Amino acid sequence: MLAAAAAVPAVVAQPAVAGPATGARSVPCDATADVCVDLSRHRAWLLENGRVVEGPVRITSGARGSETPTGTFTVQRKDRDHVSQEAGNAPMPWSVFFDDDGRALHGGSLSRQSAGCVHLDDEDARTFFAALHPGDEVQIVD
């Protein structure tokens, strides 16, 4: 579960509305998720006990041929200053890894697609990094 972190600003949690997303507070993931990523709307949310604590925030995801997978994943590890060997030493600041293929939520350009990761702007990436811990649930929907 999400733990309180000094780097995460205090916000009042808002109820998440699961199911088809229609409004700004609508979250298309289960209440069990700690982070929800909506690839088609290019948005992500931090959740705690089914309530929105941050978001929606803008994201970009995998380009054609390097799509970001959908499904339910678990945060495996975090790396504040990760550099991708597979992507020509590309910086991946504030990385929160969620699958066995090295995909992560991390700071990155919102003006281009990724190689399969979920890009957040740097401020949002820091917030997600501080709030998420190994074992937390990541849901990615299309």
Average pLDDT, all residues:
87
What is the level 1 CATH name?
Answer: Mainly Beta
Radius of gyration equals 14 Å
How much strand content do the residues show?
A: 35-45%
Describe, in plain words, how this protein is organized in 3D.
The protein is mainly beta and 142 residues long. The chain has one domain (24-141): L,D-transpeptidase catalytic domain-like, CATH 2.40.440.10. The protein is 7% helix and 38% strand. The chain has one helix at residues 122-131, and strands at 14-15, 35-38, 43-48, 51-60, 71-74, 77-84, 90-97, 104-107, 118-120, 137-141. Strands 1, 2, 3, 4, 5, 6, 7, 8, 9 and 10 form a 10-stranded mixed sheet that branches. It is globular and about 40 Å long. The two termini are 24 Å apart. Mean pLDDT is 87; it is low at 1-14 and 17-24. This is L,D-transpeptidase. Residues 33-141 form the L,D-TPase catalytic domain. It comes from Actinomycetospora atypica. It is an enzyme of class 2 (transferase). It holds the Pfam family YkuD.
In summary, what is this structure?
Residues 1-18 form the signal peptide. Helices cover 7% and strands 38% of the residues.
Relevant terms:
mainly beta; ten-stranded mixed sheet; cell wall biogenesis/degradation; disordered N terminus; 142 residues; single chain; 38% strand; L,D-transpeptidase catalytic domain-like
What does the secondary structure layout of this molecule look like, with pairings?
Blueprint: E1 14-15, E2 35-38, E3 43-48, E4 51-60, E5 71-74, E6 77-84, E7 90-97, E8 104-107, E9 118-120, H1 122-131, E10 137-141
Parallel strand pairs: 2-10, 8-9
Antiparallel strand pairs: 1-4, 2-3, 3-4, 4-9, 5-10, 6-7, 7-8
